[in-house]
Amino acid sequence: MSDRYDGSQPDLERELARYLAERRLTRRTLLELIANVGAVAALAPIVAACTGAAASASPSQVSTATPIPPSSAPSATPVATATPQPTPVPTPESELFIYNWDGYIGDKTQSDFEAKYGIKVKYDKFPDASTQITKIRSDLKGGGYDLTYPASTDIGPLSRDGVISALDHSLLPNLKNLGPTWVDPDYDKGNKFSVPNYWWTTGIAWNPAKVKEDITSWASLWDPRYTGKLGMLDDLQEVFAAGGFRLSLPANTTQDTDLDAILALLKTQKPLLRKYTQDDIGDFTGGQLWMTQAWSGDWVQMTYDPGSANAKYVIPSEGAVRGSDTMVVLSGAKHPIAAHLWIDFNLDAKVSAANSNFIGYMGPNAAAQAFIDPAILGNPNLNPDAGVYSGLAELVTLEGTDLSKYTSRWIELTS
Amino acid sequence: MDRAHELAPAVGGRARPFRARLTGGLLVLPGVGWLLAFFLAPLLIIFVVSFGSNDTTGHVVLNDLGFRNYIEATKPEFLPAFANSVRYSFLTTILSLAIGYPIAFWISRHGGRHKILLLILVMLPFWTSYLIRTYAWMIILRDNGVANSILMGLGITSDPIPFLNTDFSVVLGMTYGFLPFAILPLYVSIDRLDDELVKAGRDLYASGRGVFLHVVLPLTMPGIIAASILTFIPAMGDYVTPDLLGGAQTSTIAKVVQVLFTSGRDWPYGSALGFMLMVVTLGGTLLAIRALRQETFG
Fold it and tell me: What 8-state DSSP symbol labels residue A149?
């Protein structure tokens, strides 16, 4: 795996990774040293040990490096910019600005990270993915945040436009924990810009006390018996995908005839709906929704509510969307080293498992499997077998006229 | 009367010494600067962007300015959402006036030495974020929420009444949110009302209703107009309340603009729609005020 990114300098990279692993254990001592003797003196031996490799990992390099298109040689930049002048070895910054969903990490993840590294985490939350993307794109540098969790489908456009910066894999020794299908994903070859975080499915959650039948099909969300108690996600791509599955149309279709057919079908559903919901959990546990399109992890969180402990979930037979998301460092990050430390911390087998156990989404972390709750691991709706998994569709990022086709129809549907 | 007195020096404005005029100019400078930087400049940017277009990657480009976004924005697809917005804003304004006027009247006439305290109570909700207060309404109104628990506990209904995600919850939330904005201007105009004029009306054998319709109402009309503006216009642009308390059947035009800016990533189109909404709202409100004034003052 490492050969892919290391290019011509595998030894230096490994050297630095080892140094960093050690440094983490003795970070406090190192900081005290810096405070006492001054940064240059404290870092001198380490700089000497790492020589050229240090240059490729300097904080300024990480934050200002222009993302390299996947086609060019990954090793080109470090070689070209390595100067004889010793650059300071990365010292984590004292703060970290994270932009993420609410309730998206284990309940102790943040405090454990802060305690371990002495880094103060500022954790802002966004209500939906479009708000997230709009904000980090506002200045094309991340809107002031260091790290965020975009969907895997956003990685292509975000890296192309320089919103996220290439990761320094030498700072991420725990990348070794990733499962084999996640080390070279199609959306980001070699995990150059992103580290996979969770994956999930979009299916149907229902309340068996009110809906006394086994749900297997998207058609149930068109069932007039439940008028006013049905919900769809407030996400145009997810809603159009669900409509498309009913019509056996490919997910992500951009054919006008396909989209018109889906729109016509969705228009027959709208009068039955209570809400296009941004909060499928709250609207379900609040009793407004008896049956709703839902993300698999949201269903798990629904069951945490005493009144909805029996909630059920299914991956519908016509097909369903599978999604995954990632951790990325934004190109305007003022605390890139701390951001890398956060990513590596969350790649730790136990931390990753704690996150998964909290939210109910499976992670791509192979080493974490041993620590994941058997109830999640053994649940075919959360962790479908390979046959079901390979049949699931992944949404792509829509842009330009393709996006307009969806947006105009979405507005026509919802307004 | 008072106003005529205030205006007196301005009539002889030319005679005003240069220094006084300079001081006046300096005093308004911060306000003018603020408005230029934080009101006019963003508005201007949106105005310019509304004539632009998106390139394939979703970035705004301004090399080919035109009216295409405005033509798009007049599509009939928006009409249901626009009609909803007008309906909600109108109902909110009427309800705010109907509830706010008696409250303002009572505080002014019967508040006595507690007037200030009562006005502070009116403004008390502002001490908590509007978003949190709206979430509180969700807890009250949801199907297994406070209101339904009480109704079902009393045996008034066996199945929960769907309050949330309906026209009812949207209008309720907006009226709740904008009521203080109506009460304050109403209070000011009612408090200024000269009691002697009311007495004079009674002396001339007007009934209680007659005095209210022909004396009190016309004299407090400036407050009513101000209250209407302060509720109707923000209500037209409000998207938080309909978004949180509304549902699939309660779309509003502000939500459409939000979709264009976020999911749609089409800022030019969203700007054009937002700008048109602003012009229509302003124009409509001004016409309504004119009609209202003519109705009252003849």
Answer: -
